[in-house]
Structure prediction request, 446 residues.
Amino acid sequence: MTNDTNPGRGSVRARSSNVTWHETHVSRDEREERRGHRGAILWFTGLSASGKSTLAIEVEKRLFEEGHFSFVLDGDNIRHGLNGDLGFSPEDRTENIRRIGEVAKLFAEAGTLVLTAFISPYRLDRDRIREIMSRPTDFVEIHVSCPVEVCEARDPKGLYRKARAGEIPNFTGIDAPYETPESPELVVETNVYDVAACAEQVVAYLREHGYISNESRLRAVTG
Amino acid sequence: MTNDTNPGRGSVRARSSNVTWHETHVSRDEREERRGHRGAILWFTGLSASGKSTLAIEVEKRLFEEGHFSFVLDGDNIRHGLNGDLGFSPEDRTENIRRIGEVAKLFAEAGTLVLTAFISPYRLDRDRIREIMSRPTDFVEIHVSCPVEVCEARDPKGLYRKARAGEIPNFTGIDAPYETPESPELVVETNVYDVAACAEQVVAYLREHGYISNESRLRAVTG
Prediction:
């Protein structure tokens, strides 16, 4: 790799009262070339218990096994950390999604396939993230579709039950709206297909659209 | 790689009214093993014009050239994005650093050597980030040391001049405090050594403390 702007790799310790201001970041293209796949956001949106996190984690695992760099942002690592100061009012939900979008953008710029798993019920909030991306194809909106009755029957965390009992106000799908994506890149139906099939559908999309190559990188990376 | 929890890789499309809830994230250990280096935050702190960004970008480049995954968070990609809603009051500065710490933590968990370049003048703010890390060694505090007179003489963006003219209130080192780190992992003196030498000092620290290995990963990654 040539690097014409790299100052003094010989590392002579020179006294200097002034810093030489070389500011050439490693470029996104260089990162992606090294990694063998593109950076992008896979934005999973859908009702509570539709299967967003489960699916994102399964896709993360499959991508990792192929030698790609994937990472999931979900309630577990965001709500207790970065967005621990936010509640569930409409304003706070919007700010929640705005920050997640900005963080996901950073991961994409770093060359990662970042998967986000949040209800993200408002169309405008999702569209805003698409708009801030440096490439239009950086934002892959995946509607995790499942009828609310099915989600409510699953209710793995008992949240629908609490919402029906009035213990959780403004619960998406019960007394707060979910705005279905109008033209998402992908729709997966978790009430029709199992996790493995849905994950396969996502990975196939990435392959067909050139986010990942047809050949696995794993051999090259692990020797 | 064995993976006992992975459901149905044969990808039979099965009708299913319920999702199988397998939620095993790719672990941090697996990521780091694959990458051949540890994830961590290299937290550069120091006065405006002390050389934080320049140094972080140089270290990022050297790590990348060795085949490691490094990424810089600095004013350019944070102040216009994630923290675009924050000003420069003491409260906003604290919130600014809190969010950056949380984002950097996510990058470290993802197995990245993430370099942050922010003045971060308050000791308490920096110590809080150290405390939220899942491993004590995840936070490498690097004091980019340079006398304020030298920084002011450099003044590449004319900020000190504006601060002296009263156009920027609460300017660190002029009319707002900088709290020097008490026991940083590393001190680099940009008024004594040039960028190349300071970058070498940082990389040597990472090697000596096992963040990166002695052998370059580059051969393995690029074939």
About this structure: Chain A touches chain B through 70 residues (CB under 8 Å).
